[in-house]
Design goal:
Length: 210
Amino acid sequence: MSIPTIQSTGHQAFTLARRVAAAGALAALLAAAVAPALPVAAGGCGATPAGAGSSDGDYDGLTCYQEFSIYGTDSMVYDTDADGLGDGAEILDYFTNPLAYDTDGDGASDGQEVSIGSDPLLANYFIVDPTDPGNGDSDENGLWNAEEIGIYFTDVYDWDTDGDGLSDGAEVHVYGTNPLRFDTDGDTASDGYEVAWGSNPIISDPYGAV
């Protein structure tokens, strides 16, 4: 009479084990179903703050998790909106929108405003019509008066506001230097001196101008 009892107990144990295994498989399927689907561009990171999510593949100052799960930026692109500011700089330093080329909607990119000392959160950029003679160029340096006053903050009556040997217009349109800085790259040689000697005025040369 003891044999049926042993067989019954074994059968019950086997059945229980199968149910446990099935429940585990179901739980795994459900977890996979609700887990966020990561885009190919995310490189497999972003689901959690730890592990791969803590990496910064584009070196913009934000982790992969932050970009994918919080800010919606591209974890493989340094500057998602291509406005001239890295995603990390927009969020951590300037408080601009890393998904908007022009956060304040004034016609200038966030990066352009930062580069000229304008506030990228305040709509204060003046769009100048170069065909309008009413704008004028009092110092004949290649920048309209309205540009000098409202965009670059240079002197409308001074051909070379920072006295570096380059006109304000040449600095803005030709060399990409700062018309308000005598030495844009900070290597102790003026922008004009570097241009005259064939050095790059926006790349710091440890030896100064050649």
